[in-house]
From TrEMBL:
Biased composition (Low complexity): 78-96
One protein family per Pfam: Pkinase
Protein name: Protein kinase domain-containing protein
PROSITE patterns noted in UniProt: PROTEIN_KINASE_DOM
PANTHER family (UniProt xref): RIBOSOMAL PROTEIN S6 KINASE (PTHR24351)
Record-linked InterPro entries: Kinase-like_dom_sf, Prot_kinase_dom
Gene3D superfamilies assigned to the protein according to its UniProt record, in alphabetical order: Transferase(Phosphotransferase) domain 1
């Protein structure tokens, strides 16, 4: 059977139940049916509405500095690990081996095999995405225990993606290995042909960009929120948790956008594509043009209040605006919102959500930090520790949608 009449499996039934609970009443069954068929394309660096732009000169000292991760480290980090060296998991005799984060449920023997041989002995199942930089495909690795492990293999062969960029992306992923709001990396290597490869956590629900496009089609141009307030609250909180983890370590993501947010199997958003991650003090432009903060386009990038983490928060504001009402390409309305957040905010946006958006899109000197955003009244009542379980892992106990400024409940 096909379409909305076919029988759902157990996971899809769970999605259907949860989506109804979150307010997706129209076409919720169709959404659940198609949820696991969405291809994940955001794991390609170039999968965006504008090409990646990074004016950093790799000859300069722009690599991730040594970071103290002691309070977050476990057996996946060695006390002798030195982040001043570039890690590599296999195939490169010149690079030191480095311990990656083990997926849950794998034995030490299976994980050691996955690190050492996962990329060279994997079997491709299907292509997930492709672009000018390379491809991403779904792969299966037969482990010594007899278990078949599924992951995403990212292969980059573009001459624009050089060794320093690979090292920066790998180190960014390694730095965030214990954060459930950043995609996991299991292995990496540089092949003899000069291709850069990563074995990454598979996100079967595609990207947030995919999801927002589907929601916009269902909305059919109606003047209303793109999704229920509690879903906006949940997704925004997860992304902020990922940024908080990164910013606490003196780093900035520098390319926050829906296309770089992968949706895990349980619906949890995860930041991806860390190849632009760098120190919060870096003042060179990087990221996707339509998400870049206004101060990045000044003649001098030394303006008051400018740091890369503040630029992350502006990109977070644009991402949140797309979650609320304006997916990318919505007839210039998003640009109007950038120019005048307070004046161009739709009346159906609740007052505290509007206040949060205005704080994220404010000039750099007045823009909310990640800590201030997480403490905003829009997130009152949110169980922050439970976010990592995902919406299918715990009962969502979020407040009811507040009244909008127009005086009606959403």
């Amino acid at each position: 059977m096909t379409g909305t009449n076919r029988r759902l499996d157990g996971r899809q039934e769970a999605v259907l139940k949860q989506m109804k609970g979150l307010g997706l009443r129209r076409q919720s069954r169709s959404y659940a049916t198609n949820l696991y068929d969405i291809d994940s394309t955001s794991q390609l660096t170039c999968a965006s509405d504008a090409p990646f732009e990074d004016t950093t000169e790799f000859g300069e000292s722009t690599a991730l500095p040594s970071v103290d991760v002691g309070e977050y480290s476990d057996a996946s980090y060695s006390e002798q690990s030195d982040f001043s060296e570039y890690p590599s998991s296999s195939s490169s005799p010149e690079s030191p081996r480095c311990a990656f984060q083990s997926p849950k449920g794998l034995s030490p023997e299976d994980f050691e095999f996955l690190q050492a041989h996962g990329l060279e002995r994997c079997t491709s199942l299907k292509e997930l995405g492709q672009g000018g930089y390379g491809t991403v495909d779904l792969v299966q690795v037969a482990l010594p225990s007899g278990r078949n492990f599924v992951a995403a293999r990212k292969v980059i062969h573009s001459p624009l993606y050089a060794q320093p960029r690979y090292e920066r992306e790998l180190r960014g992923l390694m730095l965030c290995a214990e954060c459930p709001f950043v995609v996991d990396v299991y292995a990496s290597r540089v092949t003899e042909e000069g291709q850069f490869e990563f074995l990454l956590e598979y996100a079967p629900n595609g990207t947030m960009h995919d999801m927002l496009k589907a929601m916009e089609q269902r909305r059919r141009g109606k003047e209303k929120l793109l999704m229920p307030v509690n879903r906006i609250q949940y997704y925004a909180a997860c992304i902020l948790q990922g940024l908080h983890f990164i910013h606490q370590r003196g780093q900035a993501h520098r390319d926050v956008k829906p296309g770089n947010v992968l949706m895990a199997a349980n619906g949890r958003p995860m930041l991806a594509d860390t190849d632009s991650m760098d120190s919060v003090k870096i003042t060179k432009r990087a990221g996707t043009t339509s998400y870049q903060a206004p101060e990045l386009w000044r003649a001098t990038l030394q303006g008051p209040g400018y740091t890369a983490d503040k630029a992350d928060m502006y990109a977070m504001g644009i991402t949140l605006a797309e979650m609320v009402a304006y997916p990318a390409g919505s007839n210039g309305k998003l640009q109007q919102l950038k120019d005048d957040p307070a004046g161009c905010m739709p009346a159906y946006v609740p007052a505290d959500l509007k206040d949060l958006l205005c704080g994220l899109l404010a000039p750099a000197a007045k823009r909310l930090t990640v800590e201030q955003a997480m403490g905003h009244k829009f997130f009152d009542g949110l169980d922050w520790p439970a976010l990592s379980s995902g919406p299918l892992g715990f009962n969502v106990q979020l407040r009811q949608a507040p009244l909008s400024e127009a005086g009606r409940a959403e």
